[in-house]
Write a structure and sequence with these properties.
2 strands, mainly alpha, 228 residues, Arc Repressor Mutant, subunit A, Rna Polymerase Sigma Factor, Chain: A, two-stranded antiparallel ribbon
Length: 228
């Protein structure tokens, strides 16, 4: 991923490590251990269930948070995703990694939530105000706050870059935002993204190209605006 830093009178692209922005640990499970846990869960081992879901809970939460841009909704969605995973674990056959299967559930639930929220907002007679507006105006704020709480060594400039970038991601439409989240933030392989979204590999690459171009355009518009 790239963010922007101010240098002289213009902004230059500068690389930010993916983990700096995502703040989501990769699964601590090896593929072999994960497969063992899935089999144990399918046999009714509740201890294995806790270990398996615990390895992915934070990642699922951050996927939902980036999609819906509301911390409370993301928490509710995370619980719903994990519950659905438990309910349907017997249907998991290992054709893909467990994480890929879980992210598919997370994306489907997040998109469904956004559709319902869009309908709800459309029939509302009043414009959103207060905390709801704050959530939209400060996308992914919870993630940035969490990073501060973790005490990560970030300069003010880097934090501004992260804020600028996450704000730009949130301005993308849901289809393009999904591509950035899965590839550039969660760092899924192209084939895994294809499996999560149920689309051809070539479509993944073309959509990702358009998503990155759209993100660049949003960033260019934001950085071209004069400082207030």
């Amino acid at each position: 991923m790239h963010a922007f830093r101010r240098g002289g009178s213009r902004l230059h692209a500068t690389s930010i490590r993916a983990e700096t922005l995502t703040m989501t640990p990769t699964s601590l499970l090896s593929p072999k251990r994960e497969a063992q846990l899935v089999q144990q869960v399918q046999r009714g081992d509740r201890g294995a269930l806790g270990e398996l879901l615990g390895a992915y809970q934070k990642r699922v939460y951050h996927v939902c948070l980036r999609m819906v841009c509301h911390a409370d909704d993301a928490s509710d969605l995370t619980q719903d995703v994990l519950l659905r995973a438990v309910q349907h674990i017997q249907k998991f056959r290992g054709d893909s990694q467990f994480g890929t299967w879980l992210f598919r559930i997370a994306m489907n639930q997040s998109i469904s939530h956004l559709r319902k929220r869009r309908v709800r907002d459309a029939v509302s007679l009043e414009a959103p105000t207060g905390p709801a507006m704050d959530d939209q105006a400060a996308p992914l704020k919870a993630m940035i706050d969490q990073q501060r709480e973790l005490g990560l060594d970030q300069s003010v400039e880097t934090m501004e870059q992260i804020t600028q970038l996450t704000d730009a991601i949130d301005r993308l439409d849901v289809g393009l935002r999904t591509m950035i989240i899965l590839r550039d933030l969660q760092e899924l392989e192209y084939q895994d993204i294809a499996d999560v979204l149920g689309i051809p590999l070539g479509t993944v690459k073309s959509r990702l190209f358009r998503a990155r171009l759209a993100l660049r355009n949003v960033l260019d518009v934001k950085t071209d605006k004069p400082d207030q």
